[in-house]
Amino acid sequence: MNTPHVVVVMGVAGTGKTTIGPLLAARLGVPYAEGDDFHPPANIAKMTAGTPLTDEDRGPWLDAIGDWAQGRAGLGGVVSCSALKRAYRDRLRSAAPGVVFVHLTGDRALIEDRMSHRQGHFMPTALLDSQFATLQPLQADEAGVAVDVAGSPAEITERAEHALASLPEIR
After folding, report:
1. Cβ neighbours of 150 (radius 10 Å)
2. Average pLDDT of the chain?
3. Which of 15-24, 59-68, 161-170 has the weakest average pLDDT?
4. Are 21 and 79 in contact (CB under 8 A)?
5. Looking at the chain, which terminus has fewer C-beta neighbours within 10 angstroms, N or C?
6. Dihedral sign, CA of 47, 92, 146, 28?
């Protein structure tokens, strides 16, 4: 499957967006962009300090990701972005109307365990509760799929690819 769509790999911290995103992009034959790279330094500093971002903090970050996605319209791409709230996804869709979401979901204990074993990432495990509190799962009217993060990265990526292939927007 090769899609001209831009796929946003979303979910709370620790679900594997940065692992699954590049694997999915490779399988789809499109470029990958790391959503964390779009954060301004002030956001990284806040999260490193264990301070959750506000909607105001996220605005420029979402706009930068939306600009990248809009620039890839018709060409395809995969970008990681937590996109936890419907309003954030609406903002991304307003910049790039054809985006499709892959919501990585999973058991909180599994995600916390994976987060505790990550090295070199600025997001502390302490912020996981605020991530789950903020999360608004994809709604029926949003183009996207939910994919369970249990299993290996290869298994998760394969599930994501198959789920995307089932979407009418992708076929």
Report:
1. 12
2. 89
3. 161-170
4. yes
5. C
6. negative
